[in-house]
């Protein structure tokens, strides 16, 4: 079995003015332990948009069928 890590990805939208918004996705935490990653995510504030993704090590993510990704929109965070 390939070695795997689990990452907690976080998404947010920054409204710079009435017509411009910036979407940001970042990785907040990475661990070989799924339970530690889940616990980290559960300890975030309830309004935080986050997800835990498994990632195999030494694997190109651009060719993966399922890529770690979060879809965000300003209305999602209203």
Descriptors for this entry?
78 residues; mainly beta; three-stranded antiparallel β-sheet; 3 strands; 40% strand
Major sheet description: 3 strands, antiparallel
Structural class: mainly beta
Number of helices: 1
Q: How do the SSEs run, as a string of H and E?
A: EEHE
- Give the neighbour order of strands across the main sheet: 2-1-3
Q: Work out the count of structural domains.
A: 1
Number of strands: 3
Compute the gyration radius: what is it? 14 Å
Average pLDDT confidence is 81
Portion in helices: 10-25%
Give the strand content. 35-45%
Distance between the termini: 42 Å
Q: Which stretches are low in confidence, meaning pLDDT under 50 for 5 or more residues running?
A: none
Q: Shape from CA axes?
A: flat
């Amino acid at each position: 079995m390939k070695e795997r890590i689990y990452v907690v990805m976080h998404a947010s939208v920054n409204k710079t003015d009435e017509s411009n918004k910036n979407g940001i996705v970042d990785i907040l935490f990475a661990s070989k332990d799924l339970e530690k990653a889940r616990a980290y995510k559960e300890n975030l504030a309830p309004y935080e948009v986050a997800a835990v993704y498994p990632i195999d090590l030494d694997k190109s993510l651009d060719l993966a069928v399922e890529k770690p990704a979060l879809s965000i929109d300003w209305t999602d965070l209203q």
